[in-house]
Amino acid sequence: MWIVVGAVVAVLLGVGFVCDQYLRHEAEQEVATQVAAAFAGMDDPAVTIHGIPFLTQMLSGKLKHVTGTTDEVVFDGLSATDVKVDAHDVTMSPARARSATVSATIDVSTAQKVLRTRTGIGDLGLRVDDDHLVVTTDLYGRELAIVGTVSTHDGLVQLDLGQASLAGQPTDYGALPSHLRNRLDRLAIPVSGMPEGVALNGAKVVDGGVRFTASGTDIPLTRSIARR
Predict the structure, then answer these.
(1) Banded pLDDT at 204 (limits 50, 70, 90)
(2) Number of H helices, E strands in the chain
(3) Using one digit for the tens of pLDDT, what is the confidence trace for 58-85?
(4) pLDDT tens track for 13-35
(5) Phi and psi dihedrals of 99, rounded to 5?
């Protein structure tokens, strides 16, 4: 009898596990649709609902921890790659997240195009050197190179300039022509098109570009803000 009871329990547990996984998969598909709605420039994010079992979360109406990834999102015309969304306490009706963090990378070539447009310096070059960015341009037929770090301010990834060199020799940034310094002061990348309630709050130089983060609380997952 106990063998039969054990077998029945095992079958029921197996069925329960399969049902739990099926419901989790369906919910992940629904959350993916909601996340894509919040980021109109996001296609088919891969969503994972964390925590076991899933059924108890579903019955409570709140998903404790949800992560999503996608290869690329376009924020108001700015292409960013390796996009990750980390959300907590996600409800489906209404679709909201109590808190969420978005992180993504702007590659060097994209950043260079944006900075050339903002500064009007057509030959502006940009490269990564460890945890710094190096801006280059021609000055009097010689290469001017300026090392900088990144920070965030009012929706901008700001390039904060430091040591400058001309043809490999240290030079005083303040001694550069004023018209050039005025243009270099515009070295910043606007990051807009975030979901309502999410604001840019960090950036760092990484291999191949700049990675930024943005966070917020009480975030709706139904309103499309970002644009292609």
Answers:
(1) very high
(2) 4, 12
(3) 777 788 888 888 888 888 888 999 989 8
(4) 343 444 545 455 555 566 656 66
(5) -150, 155
CA 160 to CA 144: how far, in whole Å? 16
Q: Dump pLDDT digits (tens) for 107-137.
A: 999 999 999 999 999 999 999 999 999 999 9
pTM, 2 dp: 0.80
89 Cβ contact partners less than 8 Å away, ≥ 6 residues apart:
62, 63, 64, 97, 98, 99
Number of alpha carbons in the 13 Å side-chain half-sphere of residue 111: 28
- Burial of residue 76 (CB within 10 Å: 0-12, 13-18, 19+) is middle
**CA–CA dist 24, 57 (Å, integer):** 10
C-beta of residue 225 within 8 angstroms of C-beta of residue 195: yes
In the chain, the amino acid numbered 131 is D
**Type of residue at 13:** L
Distance CA 121, CA 115 (A): 8
Question: Residues 143-148: contacts with CB within 8 Å, 24+ apart?
Answer: 143/167, 143/168, 144/171, 144/176, 146/173, 146/184, 148/187
Torsion of CA 183, 187, 191, 197, to 10 degrees: -100
Report the alpha-carbon distance of residue 184 to residue 64 in Å, rounded.
45
